[in-house]
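ARCHIVE CARD
CATEGORY: sequence design from structure
SOURCE FIELD: tokenized fold
FIELD CONTENT:
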């Protein structure tokens, strides 16, 4: 259908109305509320628990690259860590939560622009003969309406709302990194505890073999009339006790193996890790400067972004004290026949403006403002507490590494002394100088010292993992997206396949 000059003019007037409503940039606005400034947090000059000889420079390159677990040079661990990003369901849930936060930013940004609706309606009407007009007329009404509404962001309410959702989305991104770091660290800690149990089980099984030989020796001496039945009973008791300890260690190992399976996103029923006793010592991990910790911990970044969101929320509450301006417009075509529906005379248009201000609300706005300020104070306190907890994490594990290293050296000396004592006791027993009680005592002490040495090594490895976690695992706050609503996919894989 070709439009005549009148209909074309009507369309131009309608489009001009829409263009007028779509000029939010023309309306300059002032965003009410306090300017945001990052809260001050207490920063110590240095870490007091840094082991002697360790540097305070930046963490090693392997940590800074993000795949910090590669610093331990364990291929099996590297393979397991890589599966977390692909298969771990907790991480997928955190990713979905972040996607929700990003979508909310886009939702709030839509308030910068007018809302325009359009439609079509058709009605066939027959008037009553007893109506006021008494016309008993029958007619058709065809309408193509276009309505537009827009609220100019005069006081910055929309801008503050977008700030809130954007800061919350950035906090969600930091939460995602926190979850990822925690999962990777938990897997590494479980892995080294499993390997420490492998070492314990290997020690216990080799000890069982030695005790079996000792029992055989004692039985031979008993049959030869040299040893008593008490010696045999003592040797048998020590052997069975050690076997029971080996069985108990295998139970603990199975539980850690199942935990690793879940972290790797696999079924515990099908997952299997071959034994590999822990032998390596933890690498040196420079902690860097305390001031750098504020930029390297994702949980600190998330807490700081929530402070920013709470600050912007004060502006939203403050905007409630000012008038709300609204622009509305409508236009379109209306006719009783489809043949002239788009003709010029069929066009209609209207434009309106309004201002609405709350005059009396019995202190409701004041309460909302007080609540926003209290929420801001709470977020600041939470941020500072997160910072303090971060320093505690680093100091705890620095102290653990320093003290456990010294304990390991002392324990090795104890192991050497216990082995020497056991050898002397066995020599004395074979020579008939002492009873088997002295041998069993020396055997028990030697096994206990050797197990303690293995356990200390496992604790050192776990402390090194927790130290890397406490340092942020190579993450940096510059990785936070400036505009999370416009970067990367916003549709889940499940939505794409449905």
């Amino acid at each position: 259908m070709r439009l005549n000059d009148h209909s074309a003019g009507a369309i131009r007037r309608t489009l001009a109305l829409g263009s007028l409503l779509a000029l939010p940039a023309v309306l300059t606005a002032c965003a009410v509320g306090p300017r945001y400034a990052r809260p001050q947090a207490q920063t110590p000059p240095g870490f007091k628990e840094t082991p002697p000889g360790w540097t305070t420079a930046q963490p090693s390159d392997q940590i800074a690259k993000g795949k910090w677990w590669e610093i331990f040079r364990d291929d099996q661990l590297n393979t397991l860590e890589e599966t977390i990003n692909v298969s771990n369901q907790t991480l997928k849930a955190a990713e979905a939560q972040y996607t929700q936060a990003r979508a909310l930013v886009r939702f709030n940004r839509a308030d910068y622009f007018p809302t325009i609706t359009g439609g079509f309606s058709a009605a066939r009407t027959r008037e009553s003969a007893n109506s006021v007009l008494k016309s008993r007329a029958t007619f058709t009404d065809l309408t193509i309406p276009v309505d537009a509404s827009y609220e100019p962001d005069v006081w910055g309410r929309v801008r503050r709302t977008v700030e809130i959702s954007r800061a919350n989305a950035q906090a969600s991104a930091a939460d995602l990194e926190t979850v990822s770091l925690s999962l990777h660290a938990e897997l590494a800690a479980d892995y080294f505890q499993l390997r420490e149990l492998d070492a314990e089980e290997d020690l216990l099984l080799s000890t069982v073999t030695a005790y079996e030989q000792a029992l055989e020796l004692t039985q031979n001496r008993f049959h030869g009339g040299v040893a008593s039945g008490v010696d045999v009973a003592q040797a048998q008791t020590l052997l069975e006790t050690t076997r029971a300890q080996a069985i108990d260690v295998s139970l603990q190992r199975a539980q850690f193996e199942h935990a690793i399976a879940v972290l790797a996103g696999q079924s515990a029923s099908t997952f299997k890790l071959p034994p590999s006793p822990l032998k390596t010592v933890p690498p040196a991990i420079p902690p860097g400067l305390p001031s750098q910790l504020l930029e390297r911990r994702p949980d600190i970044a998330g807490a700081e972004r929530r402070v920013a969101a709470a600050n912007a929320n004060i502006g939203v509450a403050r905007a409630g004290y000012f008038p709300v301006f609204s622009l509305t417009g409508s236009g379109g075509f209306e006719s009783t026949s489809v043949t002239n529906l788009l003709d010029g005379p069929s066009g209609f248009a209207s434009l309106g403006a309004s201002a609405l201000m709350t005059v009396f609300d019995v202190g409701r706005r004041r309460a909302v403002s007080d609540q926003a300020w209290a929420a801001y104070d709470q977020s600041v306190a939470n941020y500072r507490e997160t910072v303090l907890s971060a320093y505690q994490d680093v100091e705890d594990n620095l102290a653990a590494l320093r003290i456990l290293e010294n304990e390991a050296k002392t324990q090795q000396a104890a192991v050497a002394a216990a082995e020497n004592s056991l050898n002397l006791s066995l020599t004395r027993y074979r020579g008939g100088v002492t009873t088997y009680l002295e041998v069993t005592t020396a055997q028990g002490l030697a096994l206990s010292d050797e197990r303690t040495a293995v356990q200390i090594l496992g604790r050192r490895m776990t402390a090194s993992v927790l130290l890397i976690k406490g340092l942020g695992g190579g993450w940096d706050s510059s990785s936070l997206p400036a505009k999370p609503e416009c970067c990367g996919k916003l549709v889940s894989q499940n939505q794409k396949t449905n």
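CARD ANNOTATION: The chain has one domain: 41-114+153-322+366-497. Residues 157-223 form the longest helix (67 residues).
SHELF: design records, drawer C
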